[in-house]
C-alpha cells in the first residue's frame, strides 16, 4: 500500500493539474448541441480555451459570463442572465452547461438560486436545457470537474424510473475524463458486439474526434442526444470507468434503479477480461470471435513487449485515475514505478498505486523524483517536456494537455486492442531511445579508437599492426 505525501508549497513552479471548471466544460462538450459557459472572469475562460484548442486542434465553443470588478463586488447574477440570453439567442444551443469558477465560489454567491430565478422570468430560455455544476478552481482538478458536471447532468436531465419504462438492450456508459475519443469509440464497438445499444455520457467521441464537418456549427459537433440522456433508466446495466465516476454512477443508479459496475481501469488484460465477461453474462451470448482474436493478439504483444519493459524505472505524474491505470499497466509489464505524482489527493484509490509513495504535487516533484531514482522513462503530459530536456530522460506523453503531438484523440488505451496499442507505443519509444543512445556512444568512441591507433603507430606498438 502506497504512502500518500501531500506537498505544501507557497507556489507551484511547474503545475501538473488542470482546473475543475475545464474538466466540467469538456464534459459539457460531450452533449449534443452543447455550449459550456464559464461563470467567472474572461481570463478563466481564455486560459481553458487555449489549452483545449492546443490539445484537440479543434474549434472549442467556450463562453463566459465575463465578470468584471463591479460584478465581483456587487454580485454576478446579472452577468449570468445576460450571458445565457446572449448564448441562446445567437448560438441556438440545445444545452448550456454552466461551470462556476473560483471568483464566484470565493464570493459565496448562490449561483444555483440565481439560475432558478433567471429561468423563471425568461420564457425564451424554456426550450434550452440548462445545467449548473459547482466547480471552484481551488478544489480538485480535471477529474473532479468532469465528474461534477456529469452528476449535474444526471440529476437534472435523467428521468427517474417508473413502471411505464420498458427495459431495452441498452447499456449506460460513464467514461472518465482520461478516455480519448478513440477509447469511447472502442468501448462502443465492444458493447455493440454483444448486441447492446450503448448510451455514453458524456460522449466526446464525435464532438472532439477531429473530423471535418460538412457544415459549420456554433455548438458542440456531436455528443449524447438529450433524448437518450432522459431515457437512461431503460438500461439493463451502467458501466463507469474510474473512481472519479463512482459518484455520478451511484447517483444514476439511485435515480433509475439500474445496476452499476465501476471499473477502476480498462487498460490491461485482466480489466479487459472483466469487461468482456460482464457483457457476456448480461447478454447471455458467447464472446465474439473478433474479441477472442484481439485477446490473443494482446497476449502476444505482452510477450513481445516485456523484454523492453522488464526492470525499467518509470516516473509518472497524472490525475489520480490515470495515474492508477498507467501504474498498474507498467507494473503488469514488468516495469517499476519509482516516482508517482498525483495532481490532487481526491482519488479514493491512490493508496493502491503500486509504488512506495504517491506525492500529491506538481511536475517539480516528478522531476526531482525521476532524477533521484535515475528513471528510464517520464510519463506525463506535454508540460513535462522541460524535465525531459533537463534530465535527458525520454518523455511518453499521456493525459491533458498534449499540444506538441498530433493524433492524440485517435490513440486507444482501453480493451484488448487499446492495451496492445499502448504496449507498442511505449516499447517503440524505449527501443528508439536505446538505439540513439548506442549510436551516440559509438560515434563518441570512434575518435578515441582512432587516436589510440595513431598513438600505437607512433610508438611502434603491435595494436597498429593489427
Automatic annotation (TrEMBL):
<dbReference type="GO" id="GO:0016163">
    <property type="term" value="F:nitrogenase activity"/>
</dbReference>
<keyword id="KW-0535">Nitrogen fixation</keyword>
<dbReference type="InterPro" id="IPR000318">
    <property type="entry name" value="Nase_comp1_CS"/>
</dbReference>
<comment type="function">
    <text>This protein may play a role in the biosynthesis of the prosthetic group of nitrogenase (FeMo cofactor).</text>
</comment>
<feature type="domain" description="Nitrogenase/oxidoreductase component 1">
    <location>
        <begin position="19"/>
        <end position="430"/>
    </location>
</feature>
<dbReference type="InterPro" id="IPR050152">
    <property type="entry name" value="ChlB/BchB/BchZ"/>
</dbReference>
<dbReference type="GO" id="GO:0065003">
    <property type="term" value="P:protein-containing complex assembly"/>
</dbReference>
<dbReference type="Pfam" id="PF00148">
    <property type="entry name" value="Oxidored_nitro"/>
</dbReference>
<protein>
    <recommendedName>
        <fullName>Nitrogenase iron-molybdenum cofactor biosynthesis protein NifN</fullName>
    </recommendedName>
</protein>
<dbReference type="InterPro" id="IPR005975">
    <property type="entry name" value="Nase_Mo-Fe_CF"/>
</dbReference>
<dbReference type="InterPro" id="IPR000510">
    <property type="entry name" value="Nase/OxRdtase_comp1"/>
</dbReference>
<comment type="pathway">
    <text>Cofactor biosynthesis; Fe-Mo cofactor biosynthesis.</text>
</comment>
<comment type="similarity">
    <text>Belongs to the NifD/NifK/NifE/NifN family.</text>
</comment>
Amino acid at each position: 500500500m502506497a504512502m500518500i505525501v501531500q506537498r505544501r508549497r507557497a507556489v507551484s513552479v511547474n503545475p501538473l493539474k488542470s482546473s475543475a471548471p475545464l474538466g466540467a466544460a469538456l464534459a459539457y462538450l460531450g452533449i449534443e448541441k452543447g455550449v459550456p459557459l464559464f461563470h467567472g472572469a474572461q481570463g478563466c475562460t481564455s486560459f481553458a480555451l487555449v489549452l483545449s484548442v492546443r490539445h484537440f486542434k479543434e474549434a472549442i465553443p467556450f463562453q463566459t459570463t465575463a465578470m468584471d470588478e463591479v460584478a465581483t463586488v456587487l454580485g454576478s447574477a446579472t452577468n449570468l442572465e445576460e450571458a445565457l440570453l446572449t448564448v441562446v439567442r445567437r448560438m441556438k444551443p440545445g444545452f448550456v452547461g454552466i461551470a462556476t469558477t473560483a471568483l464566484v465560489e470565493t464570493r459565496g454567491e448562490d449561483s444555483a438560486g440565481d439560475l432558478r430565478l433567471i429561468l423563471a422570468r425568461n420564457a425564451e430560455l424554456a426550450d434550452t436545457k440548462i445545467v449548473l455544476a459547482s466547480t471552484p478552481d481551488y478544489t480538485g482538478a480535471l477529474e473532479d470537474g468532469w465528474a461534477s458536471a456529469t452528476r449535474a447532468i444526471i440529476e437534472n436531465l435523467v428521468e427517474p424510473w417508473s413502471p411505464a419504462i420498458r427495459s431495452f438492450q441498452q447499456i449506460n456508459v460513464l467514461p472518465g475524463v482520461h478516455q480519448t475519443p478513440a477509447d469511447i469509440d472502442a468501448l462502443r464497438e465492444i458493447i455493440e458486439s454483444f448486441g447492446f445499444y450503448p448510451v455514453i455520457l458524456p460522449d466526446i467521441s464525435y464532438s472532439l474526434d477531429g473530423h471535418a464537418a460538412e457544415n459549420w456549427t456554433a455548438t458542440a459537433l456531436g455528443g449524447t442526444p438529450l433524448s437518450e440522456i432522459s431515457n437512461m433508466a431503460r438500461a439493463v446495466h451502467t458501466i463507469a470507468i474510474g473512481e472519479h465516476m463512482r459518484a455520478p454512477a451511484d447517483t444514476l443508479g439511485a435515480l433509475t434503479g439500474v445496476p452499476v459496475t465501476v471499473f477502476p481501469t480498462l487498460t490491461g488484460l485482466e480489466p479487459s477480461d472483466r469487461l468482456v465477461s460482464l457483457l457476456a453474462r448480461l447478454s447471455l451470448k458467447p464472446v465474439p470471435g473478433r474479441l477472442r482474436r484481439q485477446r490473443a493478439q494482446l497476449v502476444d504483444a505482452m510477450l513481445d513487449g516485456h523484454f523492453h519493459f522488464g526492470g525499467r524505472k518509470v516516473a509518472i505524474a497524472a490525475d489520480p485515475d490515470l495515474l492508477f491505470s498507467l501504474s498498474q499497466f507498467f507494473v503488469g509489464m514488468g516495469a517499476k514505478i519509482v516516482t508517482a505524482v498525483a495532481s490532487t489527493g481526491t482519488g479514493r484509490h491512490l493508496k493502491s498505486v503500486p509504488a512506495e509513495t504517491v506525492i500529491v504535487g506538481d511536475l517539480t516533484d516528478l522531476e526531482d523524483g525521476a532524477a533521484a531514482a535515475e528513471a528510464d522513462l517520464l510519463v506525463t503530459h506535454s508540460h513535462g517536456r522541460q524535465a525531459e530536456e533537463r534530465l535527458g530522460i525520454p518523455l511518453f506523453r499521456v493525459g491533458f494537455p498534449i499540444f506538441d503531438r498530433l493524433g492524440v484523440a485517435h490513440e486507444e488505451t482501453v480493451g484488448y486492442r487499446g492495451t496492445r496499442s499502448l504496449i507498442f507505443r511505449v516499447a517503440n519509444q524505449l527501443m528508439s531511445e536505446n538505439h540513439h543512445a548506442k549510436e551516440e556512444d559509438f560515434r563518441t568512441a570512434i575518435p578515441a579508437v582512432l587516436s589510440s591507433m595513431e598513438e600505437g603507430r607512433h610508438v611502434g606498438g603491435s595494436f597498429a599492426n593489427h
